[in-house]
Design goal:
The protein is an alpha+beta fold and 335 residues long. The chain has 3 domains: 1-67, no CATH class; 89-200, DNA primase DNAg catalytic core, N-terminal domain, CATH 3.90.980; 217-334, Dna Topoisomerase Vi A Subunit, Chain: A, domain 2 (3-Layer(aba) Sandwich). The chain is 28% helix and 19% strand. The chain has 9 helices and 16 strands. It has a 5-stranded mixed sheet with strand order 12-14-13-15-16, with helices on both faces. Helix 8 links the parallel strand 15 (277-280) and strand 16 (309-312). Helix 6 (236-245) runs parallel beside helix 9. The longest helix has 16 residues, at 290-305. The two termini are 41 Å apart.
Length: 335
């Protein structure tokens, strides 16, 4: 992983600690959201703003370059954090729809969706996938959208140098996240290169910008009224593929290990008051990833405690690690 660090390259040479860490910047203890180097010289924090940002969106904090003091030392004057209330779902939907409608899908990204993932032309068009514009074109679009929409608090947009801008974190294409009413409430980016492969479009910490949060993604939610069940997976693109090859209502979490099971279950109840059954269909690599297995077991227990029947979807690993891959391969064999 490469970082946009100040001109002190030695800060990035120490490896990061493994497992759970207590972030010296935000003081949270967890496994994934923040990272600290073994020598304690640098931290990547998801929550506390700094003027330097890593490519995955986390903020870079130089802790102690001399490595003589174990405690967190901030030698510069703290920058006041900018907290802007996130725009409501209606405004986000209006802005994101207008943005995506003005963008094109580059041939290489179309090949990923059509040829590699097997989505139809109709699905690709209806879902409004679009390639991330370069910085200049993104800022031009932001200025144009600002004439018709209030952009303050819409994740990805910010106001700087007396002009509205669109954050440009990397090359890739946008994947819309839709709520149970079909409104686009967030955009994830599938990066062309680098890790993590999927990041959120966000403008947290920037003037009049906002955090993306981690919204759920709903596909074919109306089918719950008929079937009484919903399929749960990880990632909007997987959910879109599952709905392409099956007639199932699907809900996608942004990440299995980062979710709060109680909050997620509450959101399910609110979206689907008559929901009776949840079908879990996560990538089968949970079998070799203890942290993922643990997160999924917690979700399973929480769903059952809240009164849902729970099934776990299984398939032949030869068909692919994801349920969406298995459905796609079955579709191709049947054709």
């Amino acid at each position: 992983m490469k970082f946009n660090l100040p001109q002190q390259p030695h800060y990035g040479q120490s490896p990061f600690k493994k497992g759970k860490v207590t972030c010296p910047v935000c003081d949270r203890t967890h496994r994934y959201h923040c990272s600290v180097t073994v020598d304690g010289s640098l931290a990547l924090c998801k929550y506390k703003f700094s003027t330097e940002q890593a490519k995955d969106g986390r903020y870079i904090h130089i802790l102690n370059a001399s490595n003589k003091m174990p405690a967190y030392t901030q030698t510069h004057t703290p920058i006041k954090e900018i907290e802007i209330k996130r725009a409501d779902a209606e405004m986000c939907h209006a802005v994101y729809t207008a943005l995506l409608s003005r963008l094109e899908l580059m041939p290489a990204h179309g090949d990923v969706l059509l040829n590699e993932r097997g989505l139809s032309d109709t699905t690709v068009a209806n879902n409004l996938y679009a390639s991330v514009p370069d910085k200049a074109n993104g800022n031009r679009l932001a200025r144009a959208l600002a004439r018709n929409f209030e952009l303050e608090g819409v994740p990805g947009f910010y106001h700087q140098d007396e002009s509205w801008k669109l954050n440009f974190p990397c090359k890739g294409f946008y994947i819309p996240y839709r709520d149970e009413r079909g409104r686009i409430v967030g955009l994830q980016i599938r990066r062309d290169t680098g890790e993590p492969r999927y990041i959120w479009l966000s403008s947290v910490g920037k003037p009049k910008g906002s955090s993306s949060g981690a919204p759920l993604h709903f596909v074919k939610p109306d089918l719950v009224k008929r079937s009484g069940e919903v399929l749960i997976t990880e990632g909007a693109l997987k959910a879109d593929r599952i709905s392409e090859f099956s007639d199932s209502a699907t809900v996608a979490l942004a990440g299995a290990t980062a979710m709060n099971p109680e909050k997620f279950t509450s959101q399910l109840k609110q979206a689907f008051p008559k929901l009776a059954k949840a079908v879990m269909a996560f990538d089968i690599d949970w079998k070799v990833k203890p942290e993922v297995k643990s997160a999924l077991l917690r979700l399973q227990r929480t769903l059952r405690t809240d009164g849902f029947r729970v099934d776990v979807r299984v398939w032949d690993a030869a068909l692919g690690k994801g349920f969406d891959d298995a459905l796609y391969q079955a579709e191709r064999r049947a054709a």
